[in-house]
Design goal:
alpha+beta; DNA Primase, Chain A; DNA primase DNAg catalytic core, N-terminal domain; Dna Topoisomerase Vi A Subunit, Chain: A, domain 2; binds zinc ion
């Protein structure tokens, strides 16, 4: 395991603009950098990198975080892999330390699964090249399909011997535990080989490690399935893997589109012909997770269908899901009786690419045409089509693209554009309403911050929401704490902004409505008690993922990335906002306490109403009531001075 100290060094050294700059071309804008977001499709940059805060944030899709988060998301790395990547970038040597037994066990198990798979991969490969059965059957099959040895080796193809104990015995001989092989599905519960008499395809993860296998049966046994796959395991999740992506990712990024085929051999065949931006969904129909994987590299998928695919219609119905990911989907139907593999063999790479270019059809328009063909003029059926198409159109996120589709669909269906627009809008509005309602129920905090932020630049708050929520004030205090807690509130007294906040809201902390803000403050108190200064790294790299997320949410604000320094005149007479920490802190704390005081007064009133009017308790509560009112008056006065 890497030592905490090393990891801290990586975080301290990593400059977010360097790390992100490896993958995104960034332009300076004021104190920040901006660029086109690599996680969603955009034409004007809303992806912002803040060197001073050392984080990135996209105001289009909402993704944000520190350098490590960026590398994890962009490259599909684990946390440790991302740390290693950045360490390498800066030539930081990572110190390894001992793990706890429990950590060791989990880590060791994962490592073991990778080691066993790696071993099995080699075994299958040796079978293919070094055994008689392998060369006569497996290698002969691959050669007959036209695959060269270089591609066979690159993709780690192999062969499983026709023997129910081959792998099982070899594993025992080489000292591998049967339980790991069972977990990976390489051998059955009763200790028999799972793959027998099959040519083997290794499935790699994004870093090139073997995480599973697929085997194609040799010979003609109609009782056996043509292809079988490793079951899912701790290291293999079918829905999140695309066959070939490890080899294809660079080319996909370079050419800015991804070709999606169905079979393993289709990928190999195209790759061998020099078309390297190709992946297969292998077995499953395309999932949203897989689309998101592709979206890391491009926003365009071209799906190749066999010319005689019967299931194309059904397959297409599931694709509305994909449109919701805001990705451009094009379909290419290959000539009849061809799959990508056979078609490539017949026409060669340049004709193949030309065919794609000339025959690619937009998914939505294709769907419309296909449905139209099905109805053959039946007016009732046509009404159903409209419903179906409109549901699809509503999924298209970009309004410009959507209006283009509406126009074309209106032509195809011979239905007035206005009708299509109004039907589509009905669905979109309903979805927005449903979403807003859900959000409001789940998380009042989000709704209330939408509301009052940044001097009325956003839409006005819903009064009812504000009236019943103190979250705006809680949020403001938490934001100042995260952003400026490490700065001095009073330098002479060595008092930090964090200290001032902690001292002044101790009494009201138990009244916090938003548990997450409360948690941030409690963690800060602990950090101060330990004698540490809660700086930005403390929040942006906190062990608590909620805290990390909140840091990005609160600290990166769409309105502070406007170029402060270019406001020229103002700058000479007015301190930039970073320097105003004292006033800002005071204001935030006072506003929060004022709000909470009202709550305490209300509570006290309620208690009074429950007492006999001349009981001792009542008189005590009454005195308290008066004190609270005085306090309120004083605060209101101070606040009005602050607010002006
Ligand atoms: Zn984005």
């Amino acid at each position: 395991m890497i030592s905490k100290r090393s990891i801290e060094r990586v975080f301290e050294t990593a400059k977010v603009e360097d790390v992100v700059g490896n993958f995104v071309s960034l332009k300076r804008r004021g104190v920040n950098f901006i660029g086109l977001c690599p996680f969603h499709n955009e034409k004007t940059p809303s992806f912002t990198v803040s060197p001073s805060k050392n984080i990135f944030k996209c105001f289009g899709c909402g993704k944000g975080g520190n350098s490590v988060n960026f590398v994890m998301e962009h490259e599909g790395y684990s946390y440790i892999e991302a740390i290693k990547f950045i360490a390498q970038m800066y030539n930081i040597e990572l110190e390894e330390i001992q793990m706890s037994d429990e950590q060791k066990e989990t880590q060791e198990k994962r490592d073991s699964l990778f080691v066993v798979n790696e071993w099995a991969k080699k075994r299958f490969s040796d079978n293919l090249f070094k055994t008689q059965q392998g060369t006569n059957i497996g290698l002969a099959y691959f050669k007959e399909r036209g695959f060269r040895e270089s591609i066979i080796k690159k993709f780690d193809l192999g062969f499983a011997i026709d023997d129910s104990k081959d792998l099982t015995n070899a594993a025992a001989r080489d000292g591998f535990k049967a339980e790991f092989l069972k977990e990976l599905g390489l051998i059955s519960k009763n200790d028999y080989d799972f793959f027998r008499n099959r040519v083997m395809f290794t499935i790699h993860n994004l870093t090139g490690k073997a995480i599973g296998f697929a085997g194609r049966i040799m010979g003609n046994n109609p009782k056996l399935p043509k292809y079988i796959n490793s079951p899912e395991s701790e290291i293999y999740n079918k829905r999140k893997i695309l066959y070939g992506l490890y080899f294809a990712k660079n080319e996909i990024r370079k050419l800015d589109y991804c070709i999606l085929v169905e079979g393993y051999t289709d990928v190999l065949s195209l790759f061998q012909a020099g078309i390297e931006n190709v992946v297969a969904s292998s077995g499953t129909s395309l999932t949203s997770d897989q689309v998101r994987l592709i979206k890391r590299y491009t926003n365009t998928i071209k799906i190749l269908y066999d010319g005689d695919a019967a299931g194309i219609n059904a397959a297409m119905r599931g694709m509305d899901l994909i449109l919701a990911e805001n990705i451009m989907v094009k379909l290419v139907i290959l000539p009849e009786n061809h799959d990508p593999d056979s078609f490539m063999k017949e026409v060669g790479p340049s004709e193949f690419l030309k065919f794609i270019e000339e025959n690619e059809k937009d998914f939505i328009l294709y769907k419309t045409q296909l449905l139209l063909k099905e109805t053959s003029g039946d007016p009732v059926k046509r009404a159903y089509i409209l419903k179906d198409i409109v549901a699809t159109l509503a999924k298209v996120g970009d309004p410009l693209i959507r209006s283009m589709y509406v126009k074309e669909c209106s032509n195809l269906l011979d239905i007035d554009e206005k009708i299509i627009v109004s039907e589509t809008n009905k669905i979109i509005k309903k979805e927005i309403r449903d979403k807003a309602y859900k959000r409001q129920r789940e998380n009042i905090s989000d709704a209330s911050m939408e509301v009052v932020d940044e001097v009325g630049k956003r839409s006005a708050p819903s009064q009812s929401l504000l009236a019943r929520s103190d979250e705006y004030q809680e949020r403001a205090v938490t934001k100042v704490l995260m952003e400026k807690g490490h700065l001095y509130f009073d330098e002479e007294e060595q008092l930090l902004v964090a200290d001032f906040i902690i001292m002044n809201i101790m009494d009201t902390l138990s009244y916090f409505e938003n548990k997450a803000y409360k948690r941030v403050i409690e963690l800060t108190i602990k950090e101060r008690e330990r004698g540490n200064i809660p700086d930005q790294l403390f929040y942006s790299n906190n062990d608590d993922s909620e805290v990390r997320k909140m840091y990005v949410e609160l600290v990166m604000n769409p309105y502070d990335y406007a170029d402060w320094s270019s406001r020229g005149m103002e700058l000479q007479t007015q301190k930039p906002p970073e320097k105003n920490q004292v006033e800002e802190t005071k204001q935030a704390v006072m506003r929060l306490n004022y709000k909470k005081l009202n709550k305490i007064i209300k509570e006290n009133n309620k208690k009074m109403s429950e007492q006999e009017t001349n009981s001792e308790e009542f008189i005590m509560l009454m005195r308290l009531h008066q004190k609270l009112l005085e306090e309120k008056k004083k605060m209101a006065l101070q606040l009005s001075i602050v607010i002006q």
